[in-house]
Amino acid sequence: MTKQEKVKYIIDELEKLYPETPIPLNHTDEYTLLIAVLLSAQCTDVRVNKVTPVLFKMANNPSDMIKHTVEEIKQIIRPCGLSPRKSKAIYDLSHILLDKHNGIVPQSFEYLEELPGVGHKTASVVMSQAFGVPAFPVDTHIHRLMYRWNLTNGKNVDQTEKDAKRLFPRDIWNKLHLQIIFYGREYSPARGSTKEKDYITVSVGRKSEIDKLK
Asked: How many domains does the chain fold into?
């Protein structure tokens, strides 16, 4: 298979498996999505979705959030891990949104990445899922599968993102990045993948990765 044939095969197979791609993190608007994505760093979406209803009942907008202390926020989000850093980031970014952006989450990579606790990946998720701007947020599943499928050298997430954007059509980035994540979770986990289940890797993957499958 040529690289372009591989890309077409991957797109077609993922579309068969996941014709619908619901956003995994529960939210009601741009602000609650931003907070949920921030909390998801080194934490599962399932756990974030258990924590956010309690947090958003207390405050689901910047104005209400800054009425509470960092300590109060920290107590609620503790199960998500990194709570000292994340709680301060939530409090500080809520202040910045009010001071600089009229309380509205900016539709801009530049402004989002200026916010505390918001890196390029978080900004990409918000731009993609809240605003529909084509982006390719690279999480651990996408980084792993792009390497397994021999579509990137796996050097770092920046290179993986560049390769994904170069190989896949821009108009499907927002859906495809979720489809790859769903496939990674269900068919090609970091440990315990099998040849029987992880059929895309068997079909298009690099030999060294196929040999690792049980």
From this structure: 2
Boundary (domain end) residue, out of 112, 129, 146: 129
Residue 107's domain comprises 30-129
Last residue of a domain, one of 103, 129, 155: 129
The question of whether 163 is a catalytic residue gets the answer no
- Is 139 tagged catalytic? yes
At residue 154, the pLDDT reads: 85
Whether 35 and 9 map to the same domain: the answer is no
pTM for this prediction: 0.93
User: In angstroms, how far is the first alpha carbon of the chain from the final one?
Assistant: 23
DSSP 43: S
Catalytic hit among 139, 165, 175, 197? 139
Q: DSSP 3-state assignment of 61?
A: coil
Catalytic residue among 6, 121, 163, 198, which?
121
Q: How far apart are CA 30 and CA 18, in angstroms?
A: 24
